[in-house]
Amino acid sequence: MTKRNIVDLPEDLVMEILARVPTVSLVRLQSTSKRWNVLIEDKRFAEQHFTNAPRHSLLIMLMTFRVYLVSVDLHTIHNNKVNIISQLRLKDPLSNFLEEVDICNVFHCDGFLLCTTVDNRLVVSNPCSRDTKWIQPRNFYKKFDIFAPGKSSCNKYKIMRMDEFYYYDRPENINYEIYDFNSNSWRVVGKITDWFIPRCMDRGMSVNGNTYWLASTNKDLTSSSFLLGFDFSTERFVRVSLPGDHLSDPVFALAVTREDPKICVAIIQELHIDVWIATTIESTGAASWSKFLSVELANLYERICLDSWMNFLVDQKNKVLVYRDGNYWISNVFLHVVGEDKCIQVDHHDSVSRCSLVVNYVPTLVHI
User: What total number of domains does the chain contain?
Assistant: First the structure.
């Protein structure tokens, strides 16, 4: 039997094979064949690949105003280091020398990164395809505006923006607007009704195209927090029921599972933490929750600090939490990996850099 090279196979079969290759590996293959490069750049193939390819979840870390793609070993206890795979280099189009812009926040949705800059600009990037799109404001952006990337049920990508809450005593004064990638324009959709998103909780979590926050009925957090969702199909907010019965006033924090994306809630009470995963969330806000993990913090050797604004991820396969160190300005520890019976500290080779954010990332070839 004559051996056939893959480049001699029918195009449909080649597409079927390549659609199951992990994204990071596929990017490396682009330079090996002109035919493959044309195929990989095709929009139809990118969408097929996003549906069929294995979801190799990596991490995005924001360190000293720079964005890095990294991997983390969830098992090694001693000398565990962050492995930097690549850096996202965003050139400033307003600079004559194309200097890199300083990034102050990052949001993830379907392999796209929505970044806000220190000088209040907005840019969307796909680290794999190297696509970049600067989003111009309807009027202007402000320092504490709230942004969220998402998509509708018909796979139309959008950005939601809310005016900063800090300067308003009544939320009825606050508009929210939508940027549509199809029209490349903003439009005002409505006004906030009777809730605030505190500044320490203004990073939403994107799950299946929708975004969720912890919100409060007043600005000073004297009332209990609740889960607030934004549906990018209906372009409306909805309150989502939280798990469990709370006799005292616990602290809540949000996360997203790394494998099959689902919203998670950490309920922190004194030296105990319960992590719940939302198995279903209805359009009405009704939700079903399953307890994923319980950790007695007093049993852990290392002292860890958990709070409502902590930034963490949930790894279902290894049954652990991954979160950044709360004292990142004074500690060399970048991340903690916490399970029922373990606490692993993850350091970085560079003792100067500090991690201010860790975000789950699933690569995609889909173009902006």
Answer: 2
Whether 368 is in a domain gets the answer no
pLDDT along the chain (368 residues), means of 10: 59 76 72 73 73 70 86 68 82 86 91 93 90 92 91 90 70 83 93 79 88 79 76 94 67 80 84 87 91 76 56 78 60 65 61 65 78
Q: Which domain holds residue 303?
A: 55-361
d(CA 83, CA 68): 10
CATH code for the domain in which residue 209 is found: 2.120.10.30
Beta bridge partners of residue 63, listed in sequence order: 66, 355
Domain match, 302 and 159 both: yes
Claim to verify: residue 302 and residue 198 sit in the same structural domain: yes
Residue appearing with tokens 């990071």: 24
66 and 48 share a domain? no
Give me the pLDDT at residue 106, please.
92
Selection from 324, 327, 354, 322 nearest residue 338 by Cα: 322
Q: Which residue has the tokens 């500690």?
A: 331
* The one-letter amino acid at 305: C
- Sign of the four-CA dihedral 314, 319, 324, 327: positive
Find all residues with CB under 8 Å of 217, minimum gap 6, and list them. 194, 195, 196, 223
Whether residue 278 contacts residue 262, with contact meaning beta carbons closer than 8 Å, is answered with yes
* Alpha-carbon gap, residue 92 to 88, rounded angstroms: 13
Q: What is the pLDDT of residue 236?
A: 93
What's the maximum distance between 2 C-alpha atoms anywhere in the chain?
Answer: 78
Closest among 54, 86, 55, 56 to 70, alpha carbons compared: 86
